[in-house]
Design a protein that fits this description.
The strands form two sheets. Strands 5-4-1-6-7-8 form a six-stranded parallel beta sheet, with helices on both faces. The protein has a two-stranded antiparallel sheet with strand order 2-3. By secondary structure, the protein is of the alpha/beta class. Strand 6, helix 4 and strand 7 form a beta-alpha-beta unit. The chain has one domain: Rossmann fold, CATH 3.40.50. It has six helices and eight strands.
Length: about 160
């Protein structure tokens, strides 16, 4: 694992930034709960000059709001073809596969995880995602897994 090469951290949302549960209001909007330590860690990652992107298969105003709150510019929601968006981001951001870490929890994440330099699974990911990962968090999605990952990355990058 080449932790030092990572410049871009791409996060799935449901099951990574959240615990994966979906609460739907009577208006049909999905409510999401985000873990505050993950947000603080994302700000630290950005302060270190690194980029964060959110890539999710669902659409949610809560995700757009949280991304704006954290200053995350690269957000794609409602994506069925995650690998296509990923490849566009490589060109747009001028990074290579080996400079990207992707954090996922479920089947739709596998194709991108197989492409990136550092595939990461949350502790409660499905078995196939864990098998594809080079790093598996101790913490579950929505419970500080992102903060744990960023802490490890920053420690490895400063050693």
């Amino acid at each position: 694992m080449d932790f030092k090469a990572i410049q871009l951290l791409i996060l799935d949302v449901d099951g990574v930034l959240t615990d994966g549960r979906i609460v739907t209001t009577v208006d049909g909007e999905s409510e999401k709960v985000f873990y505050v330590q993950d947000g603080l860690a994302i700000k630290r990652w950005q302060a270190a000059g690194r980029a964060v992107a959110l890539l999710t298969g669902r659409n949610s105003t809560a995700v757009a709001y949280r991304a704006a709150e954290l200053g995350i510019d690269h957000v794609r929601q409602g994506v069925k073809d995650k690998i296509g968006v990923y490849q566009n981001w490589l060109s747009e951001l001028g990074v290579s596969d080996k400079q990207v870490a992707y954090m996922g929890d479920d089947w739709p994440d596998l194709e991108v995880m197989q492409q990136v330099g550092l595939p990461i699974a949350v502790a409660n990911a499905v078995p196939a995602v864990k098998r594809a990962a080079e790093y598996i968090t101790r913490r579950q999605g929505g419970s500080g897994a992102v903060a744990e990952t960023i802490e490890v990355l920053l420690q490895k990058q400063t050693q």
